[in-house]
Design brief:
Helix content is about 55%, strand content about 10%. It has helices at about 15-20, 40-50, 70-75, 100-110, 135-145, 155-165, 170-175, 180-185, 185-200, 205-215, 220-235, 235-250, 260-270, 275-285, and strands at about 5-10, 30-35, 60-65, 80-85, 90-95.
Length: about 290
């Protein structure tokens, strides 16, 4: 039987490339199943149908848990079928059990919107003045919002500008007011990550003090975490990522998986795609 165009088998060997990295551009549904599982066989064709309806904007990765026990263990799979959605390099949601087609569509639409036959035109992007400061961007966007109240995407731009201007509470208020389709937008996740990282440094010691704490006690995970954030938001992002990787390697479960959360947040805020790609691969090698 020929597999549908947008469905493939995922293994421990290709998971990093074909699922984690690929999800940076195209979300991936991961179906954990087994040959002996009756509900899995009824759910499989439904997943394929829903994924195909997105015309390449969504892919389906099939993981045979009998053959890929390590992958199943990493995701904590306890019952079959289990389906997870991987988007922008991270698991964002999932469900267990065989849902009807309407349930699967509702699950996918919550994150990707409804499948459409043709791509919607990109919204017009206003021209940004050269060398515009965050404060100037805030003023400009407030004027544009006043003149274009029907364009909620401008409020997302305003949230980003407010975050850049250091107005965290105002930025959060704009994020909270976004409609659901924009609240899960990549830019919204970036602003959320920026705010979370900035909040972590409230009343935090400086770099020298944190390094001194680690010299005295290398197992001071809180100090290593804060040092990573300081370096990431300062002039040494690679060193900050190194601290998070060290924390992930030595204390993966500390503070409810804080190291993994920090790395994902860092990947969202950094613009250096080469740096992000290199450290994403290093993170995946530790996780998988």
């Amino acid at each position: 039987m020929i597999a549908p165009a947008h469905t493939f088998d995922a293994t421990e060997t290709n998971f990093e490339t074909d699922v984690i990295q690929a999800s940076l551009s195209t979300p991936v549904l991961v179906d954990f199943w087994a040959e002996w599982c009756g509900p899995c066989k009824s759910l499989g064709p439904i997943l394929e149908k829903v994924v195909d309806s997105y015309g390449g904007k969504l892919r389906l990765a099939k993981v045979d848990t009998d053959k890929e026990q390590q992958l199943a263990a990493v995701f904590g799979i306890r019952s079959l079928p289990t389906v997870v959605l991987v988007k922008d390099g991270q698991m964002v949601d999932g469900f267990m059990g065989a849902l009807p087609e309407s349930g699967v569509r509702a699950f996918v639409e919550k994150h990707l919107g409804k499948a459409q036959a043709a791509a919607e035109p990109e919204p017009a992007v206003s021209e940004v003045p050269a060398n515009e400061t965050p404060q100037q961007a805030v003023a400009r966007l407030r004027e544009e919002i006043a003149a274009n109240a029907d364009k909620p995407e401008l409020k997302l731009d305003l949230a980003a500008a407010l975050a850049g201007a250091g107005e965290a509470d105002a930025a959060q208020a704009q994020l909270d007011a976004l409609p659901p389709n924009l609240a899960s937008d990549a830019k919204a996740r970036r602003v959320t990550a920026q705010l979370d990282l900035s909040r972590a440094l409230k009343d935090a010691p400086d770099v020298a003090a944190l390094r001194a704490r680690l010299a005295q006690d290398p197992a001071d995970h809180a100090a290593r975490d804060l040092l990573g954030v300081r370096l990431l938001l300062g002039d040494e992002p690679a060193q900050g990522l190194d601290e998070f990787l060290t924390l992930l390697r030595n204390a993966r479960d500390w503070n409810e998986g804080q190291a993994k959360k920090r790395l994902i947040a860092a990947f969202n805020v950094l613009d250096d795609e080469e740096l992000v790609g290199a450290y994403r691969r290093r993170m995946s090698s530790l996780l998988f």
